[in-house]
Design goal:
The structure is a homodimer of 332-residue chains. The first copy, chain A, has 332 residues and is α/β, with parallel strands linked by helices. The first copy, chain A, has helices spanning 24-29, 42-51, 62-72, 87-98, 146-150, 167-180, 192-207, 218-224, 230-240, 278-292, 296-310, 322-328; strands at 6-11, 15-21, 37-39, 56-60, 77-80, 101-103, 115-121, 127-132, 152-158, 184-188, 213-217, 243-247, 253-257, 260-264. Chain A has one domain (6-328): Ribokinase (UDP-N-acetylmuramoyl-L-alanine:D-glutamate ligase, 3-Layer(aba) Sandwich). In chain A, strand 12 and strand 13 form a beta hairpin. In chain A, helix 7 (192-207) crosses helix 8 (218-224) and helix 8 (218-224) crosses helix 9. The interface between A and B is medium-sized, with 27 and 28 residues.
Chain lengths: 332, 332
């Protein structure tokens, strides 16, 4: 195994977030499942946009947010994902490159426009997402360069990749390239509804060791094992996964491995403004910890710190340097 | 004079803000005048965008921000300004209509793209702006409907309208329509460099009473009268203006009228995040106060409250209901 060029390479849907504040009545009127992510077509996207309040556009996408967090911690990062060569696609590409992230996936020159996620943030800070996949539909195994994957210490994939038609093949190609090079493969389960759509396939990824590290939140864990009981889910996960982290919002997280189950508390937060990206940024910190050779508890603390930063402002990418924040908190 | 349909109608450059954090070294390296607004061409816009950090896109434009504040206070508001029918132009139109603001200016179907303002926010919260006027160049007197102007109690105009070639004619047409209907005409001086470009014309607007109410900050006042002394500027303004408000950041403002000069303090602020829109939102509150028939001191307090809200987050439009905030603070 040669020295790595990247600490973490992420593959995911390249999405621009369109964020607006909304009250709970709006979610009800629009038939939105609070806290979830729904896939929508272009007509529904237009209808939601017409109904929603004044919005802010910020680059998003789950794995892309994670990679932005990795770069903000000062680690070497790359991203693979598909935009169109339109105004939002160019904004996505600008934002990711401006964060010192390697990004070489060619944009689509025709076909649907760059993916957008319409995010309603309710007064409690919870976010409810509606994703129009657009150009992200066209991520293809050809967009995966095995040499680039082999040059990354960790390849990080999002469960949402199961939604576009060819992206799961890109995922499998990347996972094989990573393992051929003796690198680590990590997966986030993304969303409990996503788990519901692809439960059997996700369990197979775990059990056949396509994935070395898995991130889930409580709802995703319970959906994966179709249980209402957290401890039952954790016990099942311990059987299936080499290494797993289950995040529990303000209750912190548990790290699940052959060594046992370790709980790590959440970092303190003054005021929750927008929870979008909390899980993504937790993953960022944990991956940075692993890449630095930290133990699992320290990695989880880096994750918790990044998650705490991102939920205190609108948008799913860090606004302050996580490296500086980590240093101030004695974690780096 | 018939009953008004709108409390305030604003006319200005329709601009989408592209906001990134930057340090002072970046401003120096890019030859940017800290705190000012520079006009840039498309090539310079691209060069700045390539050099700047990850950005957030939020609808902006000085008068448009003011009108968003007027609507947030629950007053009846309309806006006139030119976008192109492109992604950012559609976002601008969505955001302004979603804030319950009347907006009927037809978008340009060809020509330059929707105007963008590249805003660098330094760690002290100060903003430095670079504006590519794009489609806003094409605002034309034909875009002014005298009946709509006549239906607004106050028509509010930005000094920046002197930059595009035909917009000052649109301004004069609107001011005439307003006065013909015995309505009020208000102007903001916009920026000290803008005042420097158009000093003689702005003084004439005041002295020939084309404008009934003028907003300026300290730098703009000093530029207008080419003086380094605040009191000298205020004395000169009192000669020229029927009614004027000079804002002084954390020192509050002074209201200048035939009755004398009254100082009103700023509203308290926990932490300044981004000063973009402070002057725009002050004007919003003051105009709402006038439209409600409040006295000048109460109007200035409504202005100060709105300015305090907008400088505590990224972006130049209110994120919370100013009406609710005004009620909580006993001003409404």
């Amino acid at each position: 195994m040669t020295a790595s060029r990247y600490d973490v390479l992420g593959i995911g849907n390249a999405i621009v977030d369109v964020i607006a504040r909304a009250d709970d009545d709006f979610l009800v009127a629009q038939n939105m499942q609070k806290g979830g992510m729904a896939l929508i077509d272009e007509a529904r996207a237009q209808a939601i946009y017409d109904a929603m309040g004044p919005a802010t556009e910020i680059s998003g996408g789950s794995a892309a947010n994670t990679i932005a967090g990795v770069a903000s911690y000062g680690a070497r990062a790359a991203f693979v994902g598909k935009v169109k060569d339109d105004e939002l696609g160019r904004a996505f590409a600008h934002d990711i490159r401006a964060a010192s992230i390697g990004f070489d996936t060619p944009p689509a020159s025709d076909g649907p426009s760059t993916a957008r996620c319409y995010i309603m943030v309710t007064p409690d800070g919870e976010r409810t997402m509606n994703t129009y996949l657009g150009a992200a539909q066209d991520l293809h195994p050809n967009d995966i360069d095995p040499d680039t994957i082999a040059s990354a210490a960790i390849t990080y994939l999002e469960g949402y990749l199961w939604d576009p038609p060819h992206a799961k093949d890109a995922f499998r190609k990347a996972a094989k390239a990573a393992h051929d090079a003796k690198r680590m493969v990590a997966l986030t389960l993304s969303d409990s509804f996503c788990v519901d759509r692809y439960r059997a396939e996700f369990l197979k990824l775990l059990r056949d060791k396509t994935v070395d590290l898995i991130f889930a939140n409580e709802a995703e864990l319970k959906s994966l094992y179709e249980t209402a009981d957290f401890d039952t889910g954790v016990a099942a996960l311990r059987q299936d996964a080499k290494l797993a982290v289950v995040t529990r919002s303000e209750k912190g997280c548990v790290v699940v491995s052959a060594d046992g189950v370790k709980a790590v508390p959440a970092a303190s937060v003054d005021k929750v403004v927008d929870t979008t990206g909390a899980g993504d940024l937790f993953a960022a910190g944990f991956l940075v910890g692993l890449a630095r050779g930290s133990d699992h508890v320290m990695a989880a603390r880096l994750g918790a710190l990044a998650a705490a930063e991102v939920i205190q402002h609108l948008g799913a990418r860090p606004e302050t340097s996580l490296k500086a924040l980590g240093q101030e908190n004695g974690l780096l």
